[in-house]
């Protein structure tokens, strides 16, 4: 109740703030955006941006905008390490599960970019602080949803054309890598699984995930083995007896920690893992769990392509 | 329901329980989350079977069955000893902070970078011993025998404190968090038989001490004066018993994580069958402990295939109703 009663006063405050900004920046243009919670009008030259979603942070940085605040990556204390160098000194305002509203207000944002999973309650609170953009795409139902999200965030930042260019470059790069892979390993199958190795068992990641999308753009056919519920990012931890469900031509293996090699090391101790065809054929690729199971966006896509390029270079030798 | 004399039975209860345990061990080898059906698995027991079936049965199901066998027996005996010692039917390693003590010790060691199985066993046993001593000394201030509630309250407080300290450790170190978090829910899957061999020396010590202490302990349950009259030293008996409990619980916790309620349910069933005399119930706890744990493990594999449930969740589901029965019973079984 006390929070609700705060809203009008916040609105007035930010209204006054916005007025001040419009007065000082005559070049600003107003943009209409379709979001999950209706149409939102923003000033396209926002300077103090807060991203409450890893995909939004990624999109902003890809466009040369350095947000003032962001949330941590899953299981981390700060932003994902691939993007850390680009955003030195960024303020952390929460995690994917929980936003610290006080730190958001303290940063005086003029634009908030959020995840499509932001609840209406949270939206009400945040939009009283600054215009809040919540993508309406469902990540689990739409192929390449991350591109739509990136475009929406780009529009809110007034840099739509730059984003189109960035996304085209990524698609072109992926096609180039796919051709190289096809040339160097024409006879190897492309069945692939993306899995996370946890002490309680392997988690098979959804083929709708961002990283799976990027892998698919190189021709990998991402397996789900029919065990991942709709709208879920991964399966439950698999019984060792059912580990063959992650078998295939390729296995991309991560933990939540950055170091994929550690995951492979832990897995290798298990006799059930040793029996997998993909292990016998030596086609297990250790990957960074933050990058492959938590993030999304154009910068992350390029980082994933970097990793795959290393794999392709090895096969070419 | 519980009489002081063992009722007359056609087959001696320990023999019947042993036979049931054998059947359940076989079932544990035949049933699982995987595609190897009981019909595929049966030939393996007679030395045949396909390569896949041999792997699943011998490399995956056999080790976890053996681990559950040892852990179940250790927890069952530890529960019986603890209940007799404290003369309290609610005294259970999981409730009294003994398991929590050993979890906390292991969490600290995992955080400091230890992962060798040998190290965790002794660390976990030391933690269990510390937990035992703290809770007994806290409860002894007013005398254990007169006030069973005090013991349980002290145990619950210690458990709560240690669990929150373990959670605090998890917050500081994400790297070992996954490992600890998994271990805290309890499981016998994916354990190496080598880990089990590391436990054997300390379990052997525990068994020898248990054989020494069981008769004096039975005397002690007649009262401190009676025990002294029979030539026993109550202080020494208590100390040895606590040591045995710590060795057993520490070993079980190192192997399978802090599994609660087994130490409560098993002696309860054993007393219902054989009466309150520790000399009879203890031998009955040996087969009943593994029976409960292996059944829980089989259920954990079958209920949510292709995933598995944490074992600690299932033992709690099985154990909680029994706990309620004990608490709501018209009178607590005399110990």
Automatic annotation (TrEMBL), chain A:
Keyword Transport among UniProt keywords: yes
Top-level taxonomic group: Bacteria
Domain (Fe/B12 periplasmic-binding): residue spans on this chain: 48-316
Alphabetical UniProt keywords: Ion transport, Iron, Iron transport, Signal, Transport
GO biological process, alphabetically ordered: iron coordination entity transport
Signal peptide per UniProt: 1-28
Main location: other
Subcellular location: Cell envelope
Pfam family, one: Peripla_BP_2
SUPFAM superfamilies to which the protein is assigned, alphabetical: Helical backbone' metal receptor (SSF53807)
Assigned protein family: Belongs to the bacterial solute-binding protein 8 family.
Protein name as catalogued: Iron complex transport system substrate-binding protein
Organism of origin: Marinobacterium mangrovicola
From TrEMBL, chain B:
Transmembrane segments: 65-82, 94-113, 119-139, 151-172, 196-214, 235-252, 281-303, 309-327
Keywords for the protein's UniProt record, in alphabetical order: Cell membrane, Membrane, Transmembrane, Transmembrane helix, Transport
Gene3D superfamilies linked to this entry: ABC transporter involved in vitamin B12 uptake, BtuC
Molecular function via GO: transmembrane transporter activity
Primary site of residence: membrane
Compartment(s): Cell membrane
Topology of this chain in the membrane: Multi-pass membrane protein
Recorded GO CC terms: plasma membrane
Any one of the GO BP annotations: siderophore-iron import into cell
UniProt key word Cell inner membrane: no
Family: Belongs to the binding-protein-dependent transport system permease family. FecCD subfamily.
Protein name: Iron complex transport system permease protein
UniProt source species: Marinobacterium mangrovicola
